[in-house]
Amino acid sequence: MTIVVLAGVIERDGAFLLTRRLKGTHLAGTWEFPGGKCEANESHDACLRRELAEELGVDAEVGEEIFAVTHAYAERTVELHFRKCSIAGEPRAVLGQEMQWVPRGELHTLEFPEADRELIEGLRRGAD
Prior knowledge:
This protein is α+β, with helices and mostly antiparallel strands. About 15% of the residues lie in helices and about 40% in strands.
C-alpha cells in the first residue's frame, strides 16, 4: 500500500521552513518540509492546508507542485508531493517538534529522509 503525503515548501527571505520528525514516528529525527498524510477522499490542497494548521498553527495558500516522487522504504512506500506554499502569520511548533528556517545554502547540513534528496539538491542549486 502506498501512502500519499503532502509537504509544503515554504520560503521566506531565502530560507526554508523545516520541522524535525518526532520520536516514535517513521524516520524520527530527520528534518522535513512540514505536511503529512492525505486522508481518504481529501484533496491535496485541503490535506496540506489542514496539516500546516495542525502542525504550525498557520493558514496556508497552497501553490503549484514543484516536485513529486514515489519512494519505497523498508517499512512503507510513500508518494510524496511537494507544493510551494505561503503562510499567514508566524508558525509555531504546535506538536512540540523542532522547527527552524534554513538558508538554501545550508540545506545539505541537515539529515533528510531519502525521498527528499532530489528536491534538496534542486533547491540547493536554486532550481525551485
